[in-house]
Structures are given as structure tokens and as C-alpha cells.
Sequence to fold (259 residues):
Amino acid sequence: MLTLDLSGKKALIMGVTNQRSLGYAIAEKLHQAGAELAFSYQGERLKEEVEKLAAPLNALTFQADVTKDEELDRLFAGIKGAWGELDYLVHAIAFAPREAMEGRYLDTKRQDWLLALEVSAYSLVAVAQRAEPLLREGGSLVTLTYYASEKVVPKYNVMAIAKAALEASVRYLAYELGPRGVRVNAISAGPVRTVAARSIPGFMKMYDRVAQVAPLKRNITQEEVGNLGLFLLSPLASGITGEVVYVDAGYHIMGMELE
Fold:
């Protein structure tokens, strides 16, 4: 059995809110491989929960709202002070106002569109800017996306546009960070029953449909997302960058089901 040893590696995981977060699944796998961890969370409301999650993983915790430059500056100053360098960054951050997910995309308000894009897509650029001076050669960034970035998923609305922008950003960041030996990839995960998923109108219909149509005839697990995240961050994926990698039981390959 292959054993992955990431002892001495430093990883920042952004966007964990609870134990069912996909970012937390990746964090657990990194911890099991020996990496040192830090979590960032948005605000005081999440502080207690994130600190509770961080404790068994011996992870540092930092507060940072990705829409505020000064808080991001403080976060990465804290990372530099604690570790000096950084190897891995997991970006698991997305948000859209609920009303922008419930109606027609055609009716999306300007401020809701801009907020969704800022939090869900530009935030990757903002954190990459600040991580760049700290990233060691062989470093890796991973973000989370979804199939609605390329095909219409009713009610995913503005979040689909944000994910499309996020995926384009992955390619450009991979190109610009590549000469330093730093890789950037995205995980396109199938539906998983997380707290964040509950905010998506019609989520359970999506969840059930994937299990019916996907070649594996089931949905994926958090652990499968964690395994892929660990792989993409690690030296095992040293030749992979700028990619959107699917873990969705094969759902994305399907065109038409005739049975």
C-alpha cells in the first residue's frame, strides 16, 4: 500500500465551516499524511466551531473575510509569522445571496451578481496574490468547483457563472505560477450532503438524479473528495496543473440516458 508522507509540509485550508465541509475532508487527509494545518474562517460567528474542528488536527486558526484586503493581509502575515513558508492552499469558499439562487438567472440583481463573483471567484486570485511570496517550489493550490460551470443546472444561477470564472482563474494562475513550480487545480465534485448544499434550491433532486444517471449509480462521499484533494496537492500529482478534475461517479461524461 502506498504511504504518502507530507511531514514538514504546511497547508492553509480556507472556508471550512463544519465537519461535513469538503475542505475539512481534505484537511483530514492532509493531517493523516503528516502535514501541518491552518484554518481560516470568515467571522466571529464561526470562531468557536472552527476552533473545535481545528483542535484534533492541531491546526492553527485565523479569522479572515475574503472581501476585505486588510483581513487577507493580516491572515498571510500570520501564516508568515507562524511558519515562514507555505506549501499548500485549499480554497473552499463560495457564496451567493439566496434570492439570486431561487429565481431566474435573468432577474439577477447587479449587487448580487458582483458579490457572488467576488466571494466565489475573485477570492482565489486575492489569496493567490498573498500566498505567492510564501509558496515553496512544489507548492500547490486546490479550489472547489461544480459541473454547472459548463452545463445548465436550473436554479444554480449566478453560482454557475462564478464557478466558470473560478475555473478560468485556475488556468491563468496555473500559467503564471507554473515557472515557480507551483501548481493550481480545481476539483469538480458531485453533489454531497453538506450544510452549504442545503442552500441550493432543488439540491435533493440533483442528488437523486446523479445517483440514477452516473455510471457508478451512486453519489460520491466526502472521503472521495478528500482523497482527490490530497492527491492533487501532493507530489504524486507533480505533473498536473491548470486542470478541472472530476469526482462525480462519472456523471459528467453522460449525454443521454436511454434506459
User: Anything to note?
Assistant: The chain has eight helices and seven strands.
